[in-house]
Design goal:
This protein has helices at residues 30-41, 49-52, 82-85, 111-118, 124-130, 135-151, 175-183, 192-207, 237-246, 259-262, 267-270, 341-363, 369-385, and strands spanning 3-7, 14-20, 57-61, 63-64, 67-68, 73-78, 155-163, 166-167, 214-221, 225-228, 251-256, 274-277, 281-284, 292-293, 296-298, 302-308, 319-321, 328-330. It is α+β, with helices and mostly antiparallel strands. The protein has a five-stranded antiparallel sheet with strand order 8-7-9-16-11. Bound molecules: flavin mononucleotide and the ligand C=C(O[C@@H]1CC(C(=O)O)=C[C@@H](OP(=O)(O)O)[C@H]1O)C(=O)O.
Length: 386
């Protein structure tokens, strides 16, 4: 069984993750994971924190000579900003220096409910962990899954579809070009015209002390039919993927295939008709289902979209109520991003990679990569010949 845990505060010394269940013999380097971490840090609209951090993973266990051992991996990512916070964040009561407590919760963040639920007087005790800084650890974890999937010929791509109401024109759909653009951390989407408008909109929001959200899409290519299951709710792969995407800070909606727009169509226009060819097996000529039917992959490309709400911290803060004296006041301002949709897209790819790898290892158990590949190719042959 593939599983992971992450730990770490945003301004603590580091983020760590323990990954268990990866097969042995998987080629994996820190450099491979670092490329994904770099992509997560990019995208127009990020704040000053991303100039401080330069995320790099260290393996504390589980990898030897560029190969997984089959034992738990411990991934470690240093927070460079820690040096500016070491006294405020110190676990040692003697060494800790008190800062002014944060008492004016930001609408849209975890501040108010986190403080009520955990009985904190200082909102910093909530925001340190609710912060999307944690997603650096999840991208590192997801990258180990992405590496595994590459060995099986499965590829994950992501694309920003909309920012602040401006749609990306995906007319320029050469996948190689798209991959190059997405790999360069500066760029938002495939169409330079749309991208310019998005950048202007982000600049405008920044000037107004406002923030923006948007929509991103993740696709999974090369998945066979039969991952997930129809037999029980928590084995349905669409449920797991939706939960994974919804768990990303600020994601407020997820759709599979045509999703919400499909709800307006008659069944005759929505369902994907079934075809068969010898040596190819069963296939579809349309993919409105987004590659998933009955909680199982159906062999077509998986298409998932996620709606990202605007960043809660506003430099022109909204009304709030002080936790201490209950006076009406403006919400606290922590240094913040204006827009993080491109970063959310990279995180989306990572969490999707994880869920797909989990489903693969469930269907094709293997303690070593070689064993996994044997089971995998046997099943693929069966699907072609059935
Ligand atoms: C990559 C990324 C960066 C984010 N940066 C900020 C930020 O700088 N300031 C902020 O208030 N929220 C930021 N958020 C959003 C908050 O973390 C999120 O809204 C908050 O944790 C509340 O969770 P919810 O929006 O899922 O309800 C970011 C989210 C992501 C995915
Ligand atoms: C640190 C990251 O994002 C952070 C997410 C975040 C939040 O509230 O979610 C608030 C900001 O934190 P800070 O106040 O330290 O600048 C972002 O920078 C990151 O993505 O690595």
């Amino acid at each position: 069984m593939l599983r992971f845990l992450t730990a770490g505060e945003s301004h603590g010394p580091a983020l760590v993750a323990v990954v268990e269940g990866l097969p042995s013999g998987l080629p994996l380097t820190a450099g491979y994971i670092d490329r994904q971490l770099k992509r997560r840090q990019g995208g127009y609209g990020r704040g000053a924190r991303m100039k401080i951090e330069c995320d790099h993973v260290k393996f504390l266990s589980g990898v030897r000579g560029g190969m997984t051992l089959g034992s738990p991996l411990t991934l470690y990512i240093e927070n460079k900003d820690w040096s500016n916070w070491s006294q405020v964040m110190s676990p040692d009561p003697e060494a800790r220096v008190e800062e002014k407590v944060i008492t004016r919760p930001r609408p849209g963040h975890a501040d108010l409910t986190g403080a009520l639920k955990y009985r904190h007087k200082d909102i910093r005790n909530v925001l340190e962990r609710s912060s999307a800084r944690e997603t650096a650890a999840r991208v590192a974890v997801g990258s180990t899954a992405r590496r595994l999937l590459e060995e099986l010929g499965i590829e994950i791509t992501g694309q920003v579809l909309q920012i602040g109401g401006i749609n990306a024109d995906t007319g320029q759909s050469d996948p190689e070009e798209l991959k190059k653009i997405l790999a360069s951390s500066q760029v938002l989407c495939a169409d330079p015209g749309a991208e310019r408008q998005m950048i202007e909109k982000i600049d405008q929001a920044r000037q107004n002390g406002d923030t923006l959200g948007g929509v991103f899409e993740v696709r999974v290519h090369g998945v066979p039919a039969g991952l997930g299951s129809h037999v029980h709710w928590d084995r349905k792969i669409d449920a797991g993927l939706a939960a994974a995407l919804m768990s990303i800070q600020s994601v407020k909606g997820v759709e599979v295939g045509m999703g919400f727009s499909g709800a307006a169509l008659p069944g005759s226009l929505l369902q994907d008709e079934i075809f068969y060819q010898k040596d190819r097996g069963f296939y579809r000529e349309t993919n409105r289902a987004g590659g998933i039917e009955g909680g199982m992959t159906n062999g077509e490309v998986i298409i998932l979209r996620a709606a990202v709400k605007p960043i809660p911290t506003l430099y022109q803060p909204l009304q709030s109520v002080d936790l201490l004296d209950k006076t009406i006041s403006r919400a606290a301002v922590e240094r913040a991003d204006v827009c993080a949709v491109p970063a959310a897209c990279v995180i989306g790819e990572a969490v999707v990679a994880w869920e797909i790898a989990r489903a693969c290892l469930e269907k094709f158990p293997g303690d070593s990569l070689a064993e996994l590949k044997e089971n995998w190719s046997c099943y693929r042959t069966y699907l072609r010949q059935v």
